[in-house]
Design a protein that fits this description.
The complex is a heterodimer of chains A (114) and B (114). With 114 residues, chain A is mostly beta strands. Chain A contains no helices and 11 strands. Classes of the chains: A mainly beta (114), B mainly beta (114).
């Protein structure tokens, strides 16, 4: 049973460019969340997708957008990249239910903006 | 005030020691709680879910105090492999959306010394 997978593992972009990151959730999971983790910080919630809709959003500008596909996989798009967007981007999946919603994380995509 | 606060550490302890981490949260609507561990440059991995009555899993004990809004993690008989950043996570489930979001603390660094 494959866990959460993300691609690519590393990416280097320049300011102003656009980037798309991809995530496949763990088998049986229907909810995908995205996080940004800067060095020395905890992951910061970007947004969450369920039933192909954005259901929750953190304090991130509209430059950050996403999508969820019918097979539950998801993409994170970032437009007009800034140097400050350099971070580890983590995807987490879970099965939406009452009570505990344990999330399982992928290995992340390390984005460097030059 | 941050939504989830942790002492960043580092906590340097000898092998075999007992170490405790505390975490406070500000949103009384927080519904569930977790401890994750994160090794350097890796993704967070679920260590324990925290139940209302407290729970134990081998050398690890988690406690929740809703009245005081804090969560604790106790590690007994520390091993070298416990060296990692330990992240406190609060799960918020706003009434309007039906979904939820994780709020992470910045993490507490633990180094177990031989």
């Amino acid at each position: 049973d494959a866990g959460v997978t993300q691609s690519p593992t590393h990416l280097i972009k320049t300011r102003g460019q656009q980037v798309t990151l991809r995530c496949s959730p763990k088998s049986g999971h229907d909810t995908v969340s995205w996080y940004q983790q800067a060095l020395g910080q905890g992951p910061q919630f970007i947004f969450q997708y369920y039933e192909e809709e954005e259901r929750q959003r953190g304090n991130f500008p509209d430059r950050f957008s996403g999508h969820q596909f019918p097979n539950y996989s998801s993409e994170l798009n970032v437009n007009a990249l800034l140097l400050g967007d350099s971070a580890l981007y983590l995807c987490a999946s879970s099965f939406l239910r009452e009570g505990f919603n344990e999330q399982f994380f992928g290995p992340g995509t390390r984005l460097t903006v030059l | 005030r941050k939504e989830v606060e942790q002492d960043p550490g580092p906590f340097n302890v000898p092998e075999g020691a007992t170490v405790a981490f505390n975490c406070t949260y500000s949103n009384s609507a927080s519904q569930s709680f977790f401890w994750y561990r994160q090794d350097c440059r890796k993704e967070p991995k679920l260590l324990m879910s925290v139940y209302s009555s407290g729970n134990e899993d081998g050398r690890f004990t988690a406690q929740l105090n809703r009245a005081s809004q804090y969560i604790s993690l106790l590690i007994r008989d520390s091993k070298l492999s416990d060296s990692a950043t330990h992240l406190c996570v609060v799960n918020l489930r706003p009434m309007t959306s039906g979904t939820y979001k994780y709020i992470f603390g910045t993490g507490t660094r633990l180094k177990v010394l031989a």
